[in-house]
Amino acid sequence: MGKRVFYIITIFLLIQLVPLQTRAQQPSVYEVKRMPFNINGFNNISPVIVKDGILFCSDRRFSGFEDRTSFDGHRLYNIYLAERKDSTGFNKPVALKSERSNKFNNGPLCLASDGKTVYFTSEVETGKMADNKKFRNHSGIFIAELSGTDLVSIRPFKYNDPQYDVGQPSISKDGKYIFFASDMPGGNGGSDLYYCELINDDWSAPVNLGPKVNSSGAENYPYMHPSGRLYFTSDRPGGFGKLDVYYTSLSNGSWDDPVLLPEPINSSADDFAFVAEPDLQKGYFSSNRRREDDIYEFTSTIIRKAKCDTLAENNYCYRFFEENAIKYDTMPFRYEWKFGDGNKGTGPVVEHCFDSPGTYTVQLDVVNLITKQVTYNEKSETVIVTEIEQPYISAPDRIGTNQNITLSADSTNLPGWKISRYYWNFGDETVAVGKEVPKSYRKPGTYNIQLIVFVEPEPGAIAREACVSKNIIVLPKP
Questions:
Q1: CA geometry: angle 275, 281, 285, nearest 5 deg
Q2: 204 or 456: whose pLDDT is higher?
Q3: What angle do CA 252, 254, 260 make, to 5 degrees?
Q4: Distance of alpha carbon 275 from alpha carbon 282, whole angstroms
Q5: Beta-carbon neighbour count of residue 407 at 10 Å?
Q6: Residues 58, 47 contacting (CB under 8 angstroms)
């Protein structure tokens, strides 16, 4: 640590901060709203983010007089495009038509990064058997090209099978992997998640994602986010409702334990078919929290400052010296220092670290080694030891995965600030509010923690805030 010279002293008024919110409170990290293109009485599901709006599936009528039903009277799903008309509004959705539109379900779906190739779910059997009420028509994946509002050049996915369902596709950003749900034999539950890899322009055999991702229940609606996170829906125990949204990531060749998304994305209703913008600050999902399936938009409320000061450690160490002794180092004198905190030092130049801030009277006694005469208080100075003005993060530098720690802002030093809120961003898309907060990390890595403090404005004043950051290294437990 650097040393501060004796005669350079800065004085601060130390004011005790008002201790608000001594324990952590988990704020909501998302806000949700129902999209305006939903229609009451019809189902709207499986949003897909496109350049100019949203693709989605709905069993609504093509028009006020043209209903779409299967031979047994069930309404059919079709794909619609809701184009944006401004930053908040959408034009009336337009149906995407294909040779399957009038008789079969179209969707759920995904769109490749080229913006033209559509992978969608539809029935496998299209012949006379499809009209037999006793026939169970299974779903498969179909690939088509988007031409205006038409799906053309439709061809089946290699692994469709009339004996089981294959559907709800999601293509990776680089086009090398396709994820889907299926109840094919050999799975873990009602339906499992699988992927195929594109090798030499051919899809490899389906691979089950394994028991960490798939459960004894049903996993559906996979969505591979550009970040590498795989979002999906499951009805496994431990969620908020029957269907809930989870995510997992591939680490060192294996899938992480799935993470349940918080409220209000998940709820006591069915919540499914999650998609998000690349920065995860905004996205969409489906839910029947208002009886019918509707599409909702979510926006992140997480605060993350682009500019945030790095935590500076307080330095209470000083160097003291006697100028004449340095000039005339042959003089037979002994220099005895009293630092005002019960400690002493000897020498023409000494260094001393105080334990804490405070006001200290430093005295120098000089002893003539020839005459033994002592000159008391040859020099006496008042040293005011202060803390750096900043929010302060008290936390270890290194911890292990799943280790429970407590982070504290108790040592925050902002004189005159009546802090109303302590906000923590843990660098892993989780946040907390409180002066003292608990935390653990599930995965190894280096995380940048931000502590943001706020002062609510008084009448005629302005709001104030300050931010400080600290890295914490999370090591894998042996």
A1: 25
A2: 204
A3: 115
A4: 9
A5: 23
A6: no
pLDDT per position as a tens digit, 369-395? 888 888 888 889 999 998 899 999 999
**Residues forming beta bridges with residue 58, ordered by sequence position:** 44, 78
> In the chain, which residues fall in CATH 2.60.40.10?
315-385, 398-475
CA distance 235 to 311: 44
Going by CATH, does the domain composed of 398-475 fall within 2.60.40.10?
yes
Amino acid identity of 267?
A: S
The mean pLDDT value of the chain amounts to 88
What's the CATH number for 315-385?
A: 2.60.40.10
Token pair for residue 46? 């499986």
Say if CB 119 and CB 196 are below 8 A apart.
no
Distance CA 373, CA 421 (A): 60
Instruction: For residue 128, report the phi and psi dihedrals to the nearest 5 degrees.
Output: -60, -30
For the record, the structure tokens of 306 come out as 């682009």
Q: Where in the chain do CATH 2.115.10.20 domains reside? A: 30-300
Give the CATH number of domain 30-300: 2.115.10.20
